[in-house]
Amino acid sequence: MKNSINNAFKVAKKENRPALISYTVCGDNTKDKSLQILNSISKDLDIAEWGIPHNCPTADGKDIQNSSYRALQNGIRLNDIFKLVKRFKKTKPSKPMILMGYYQMIFNYGDKKFIRKCKESGVDGLIVVDLSFPDNKNFAKLCKRNSICFVQLIAPTTTLKRMKEIIKSSHEMIYMISTISTTGSALKYSIKRIIKNYNVIKKIKPSKNVVIGFGITEKTISNLRSADGLVVGSAICREITRSLKDRQNPVTNVSKLVRKLKNKII
Amino acid sequence: MIKLKKKTPLIDQHDKFGFYGNKFGGNYCAETMRKPIEDLSNLFEKLRKDRKFLKKRDNYFEHYLGGETPFFKLENLTRHLGGAQIWCKDVSAINGDAHKAYHATVNALICKESGKRYIAGDTGAGMFGKNLAMAAKKMNLKCKIFMGTKDISRQAPNVKFMRDAGAEVVPVDSGSKTLVDAVSECMRHYVSNCDNTHLAVGSAIGCNIFLKICAWSTSQISRELKKQLVKEFGKIPKLKLINVIGGGSSALGFWNEFIDFDKKHVELIGVEAKYAAPLSTNAKVAILHGAAQYCLTDKEGQIAETHSLSAGLDYPGSSPLHGLLKDSGRARYTNASDKEALAAFKLITKLEDIRPSLEPAHAWSECIRLAPKLKKSDVIVVNNCGKGYKDKKIYIEQLGYYPK
Q1: pLDDT category, A3, cuts 50, 70, 90?
Q2: Of the candidates A181, A209, A225, which has an alpha carbon nearest to the alpha carbon of residue B30?
Q3: Which of A207, B88, B284, B303 is most buried, with most CB under 10 Å away?
Q4: Whole-angstrom distance, CA of residue A79 vs CA of residue A88
Q5: How far apart are CA A224 and CA A227, in angstroms?
């Protein structure tokens, strides 16, 4: 299973396009609905990312905060998330699943127990927003031992020296934050500058799969298509919010949006 | 049990990852914040050894904040309770009305040194917000204050002050609409603007560097107190230092110079609000706002909602340094309810001339409980860390009056 993330990138590369990665919050707006959304969009996705909702998300903008709030209001718990991942993987065993969250949720559950449950339910990778290098060394090792990809993050503020260290200790996928911001704000930098930052990372270790996230929308996605992968999160969460507000079905609306995103990068 | 190091300032007793006693603190933050907080750490370590900077700080403390705050005996209260001698370190007499003046001023000075033109801070009771707004105005910085909408309405006098001083008050309407949400929103603002904005965290919480700057700044209180005690008693008498705990910034400042004393000689007592009391109700360690700390959570690990009449205490977490003081046995923690704090205010203001805000009223409540059980030779000092005018409306609602 470990190679399923690598495979996803290989497939995309063969088709000469970036891998498309979605981010939605598990349990938004209900447990079943979030699974239905993911099942429906997965044909257009290369990798699925599910957020673990936390009520103190200090790196998230309004859209993901709203999604997390809805999920928590509907009573989602960590054990539900593992069950939902299992159900997802049962029908889509080859689709890589990455869980993303804040360290408090893992710490409270217990690192080892958390990773064991991830492995049991079929989680392929983990992103822990506030467990940055070098504090994440032990946790990353624990992931590796259990064949789970620990995804390191690199920000525009990361120095070259630090970047090299992070890349050295990274697994098969690296997440590049496009711009100095929380999730979902508009890109502050020019596309040229973002691609330049991206190329700095790629040059250090070309074999790593580097994805770009934060601020990727229908408008910006095609300009960044030279990346190994692109993550769209807030734009999808925003679409769920809009659908619920307009009393429309989020499953069909989000599927349409993801289709459009995919079309822009083929 | 964790052992404290002697002759090492409390704030410096961390490892290279920013952990105290292998357990509290750390730097749980987004990658984007790593470089800015590293730069800030380097700047702070340089400045705290820089004579010129220290002179500037002392100058501001002396002339801008009004110098040494008074220390006096409460004769009437002592007589009324009939036990220990009760003394007041009246930090609320500072220009700025609360201990927050110290670290707001220091943060503005550091911001100036860093070359950044913008400063952002969180506030609950509005004392930090108000002082940061004042310091920013004085030093020509653009200031944003993040405050929960519930707090904006219950601490209106301070909000007016902030706006009059030219600060932008950003209302935070998420979650419980109180301090915890204000801190989160302020951190988000920093993540998005760390290239030009200095983050001034309102208490001794957050990633390692933020709590260090805070506790370093408020320690002015205990430097003064130590001198005042020697002047009054000829030595450091057997003491109990009682301080209210929200995040814990005033207590750390009030206790800093006394950490190395034996606890039988100088006892440190922290008083939390009853329904926001992670330290005195055996809460678990959790990660909140960038640091591991004693914090109220639910079973799933979500941060719990708290309830206190006092906006400054309405916070689920506590400073990692208080976790260290608790686990090392150096300080002990208790709590007081809204009702007890109000009763303390009533008694204190009837007998004495001080007008504590709701926050130190909690400390006074513990003093009132404790003093009758002690001997005349025992000395209690309470840090009266905030002025009551900001809570005038609440006092009138709850007690029917506000004393002259």
Answers
A1: confident
A2: A181
A3: B88
A4: 14
A5: 6
Calculate how close chain A gets to B79, using CA atoms only, in Å.
48
Q: How far is CA B261 from each of CA A199, B6, B235, rounded to the nearest angstrom?
A: 57, 9, 13
Work out the percent of chain A whose per-residue pLDDT is above 90.
97
CATH number for B30-60+99-215 (one of 3.30.70.260, 3.30.530.20, 3.40.50.1100, 3.40.50.300): it is: 3.40.50.1100
Task: Give CA separation, B323 vs B2, B19, B266, B294, B311, in Å.
Answer: 10, 11, 19, 6, 22
Q: Given the DSSP bridges, would you call strands B285-288 and B291-294 parallel, antiparallel or unpaired?
A: antiparallel
Asked whether the beta carbons of B276 and B315 are under 8 A apart, the reply is: yes
Which tokens sit at A252?
A: 């069909």
Is B67-97+219-399 CATH 3.40.50.1100? yes
Among partner residues B36, B192, B289, which is closest to A182 by beta-carbon distance?
Answer: B192
Q: Does residue B34 register a pLDDT over 50?
A: yes
Please name which of A183, A176, A115 lies closest in space to residue A144, comparing C-alpha atoms. A115
Domains annotated on chain A, with CATH: 3-265 (3.20.20.70)
Domain positions in chain B are 30-60+99-215, 67-97+219-399
B-chain residues near A58 (CB < 8 A): 29-30, 184, 187-188, 191, 289-290
Residue B217 has a pLDDT of 98
Compute the distance between CA of residue B339 and CA of residue B6 in angstroms, rounded to an integer: 39
Task: Please give the C-alpha separations between residue A62 and each of A26, A250, B233, B254, B300, in angstroms, as whole numbers.
Answer: 17, 18, 57, 39, 23
Residue among A60, A124, A228, A239 flagged as catalytic: A60
Question: Tokens 């330049």 belong to which residue?
Answer: A196
In angstroms, the first-to-last Cα distance of chain A is 26
The answer to whether B191 faces chain A, any CB pair under 8 Å, is: yes
pLDDT exceeds 70 at position A1 = no
Q: Is B307 in CB contact (< 8 Å) with chain A?
A: no
The values of phi and psi at residue B96, to 5°, are 120, -10
Peptide bond just before A253 cis, omega within 30 deg: no
Fold matches, B30-60+99-215 and B67-97+219-399: yes
> Residue A161: closest CA among chain B residues belongs to which residue?
B35
pLDDT at A162: 98
- Please answer whether residues B185 and B172 qualify as being in contact, where contact means their C-beta atoms are separated by less than 8 angstroms: yes
| Chain A residue numbers touching B193 (CB-CB < 8 A) | 180
